[in-house]
Amino acid sequence: MSDTGQGRGLADFIGAWRLEREIRHADGSVARFSGRAEWRPEGDGARCVETGTLTLPDGTAVQAGRNYLWDADLNVQFGDGRFFHAVPPAGGAAAHDCPPDRYEATYDFADWPRWRCTWRVRGPRKDYVMLGTYARAD
After folding, report:
1. Does the domain spanning 10-131 belong to CATH 3.90.550.10?
2. Is the pLDDT of residue 4 over 80?
3. Model's pTM, two decimal places?
4. Contacts of residue 119, Cβ cutoff 8 Å, sequence gap at least 6
5. Which end of the chain has fewer CB atoms within 10 angstroms, the N or the C?
6. Which residues have C-beta within 8 Å of that of residue 79, sequence separation ≥ 6?
7. What is the pLDDT of residues 9-61, one digit of tens each?
8. For 23-33, b where at least 16 C-beta lie within 10 A, e where not — what string?
9. What is the distance between the alpha carbons of residues 31 and 56, in angstroms, rounded to a whole number?
10. Sheet of 127-136: strands edge to edge?
């Protein structure tokens, strides 16, 4: 793990992390995701693969997963290559517009190697806050 004084670099994320997410909907319902995120070197960047169990507000549990591509500058793409957002190396704000929805993130690396990413999502059919906490698994 590197500590450049300038924030995080891609090498800091490589490896396995425990991932816990809480998804708080505006109607008061809450869903939870519990699993793992693993950054695996791929080309000049890394692929982040998330796997785990999503427990819906009604208690139904389903297996869930997704993957993203991260480049050396911490630009994140969806698994299909479309740009998602740029992670600020020192932590802070990021955003993604997906009209008519707006996704606003805050990255918090203050307690590294435990860190958080909070997404605030708003749109005509979406209104939730998703709090993700990552901690080293290896």
Report:
1. no
2. no
3. 0.92
4. 103, 104, 105, 129, 130, 132
5. C
6. 66, 67, 68, 69
7. 999 999 999 999 999 999 999 999 999 999 999 999 999 999 999 999 999 99
8. beeeeeeebeb
9. 5
10. 83-86, 75-78, 61-70, 45-55, 30-42, 15-25, 127-136, 115-122, 101-108, 92-98
**What type of residue sits at position 89?**
P
Q: Which residue has the tokens 């169990």?
A: 53
- Closest to 107 (Cα-Cα) out of 5, 4, 12, 8: 8
Token pair belonging to 138: 């290896």
- C-alpha–C-alpha distance, residues 21 and 30, integer Å: 10
Amino acid present at 58: D
CA pair distance 98, 102, nearest whole angstrom: 6
Q: Quote the CA–CA distance of 64 and 37 in Å, as a whole number.
A: 12
**Domain residue spans in the chain?**
10-131
Tell me which residue has tokens 């991932």: 19
Q: Which tokens in the block code for residue 60?
A: 């139904």
The first and second tokens of residue 7, run together, are 């924030």
Per the listing, tokens 């606003």 go with 104
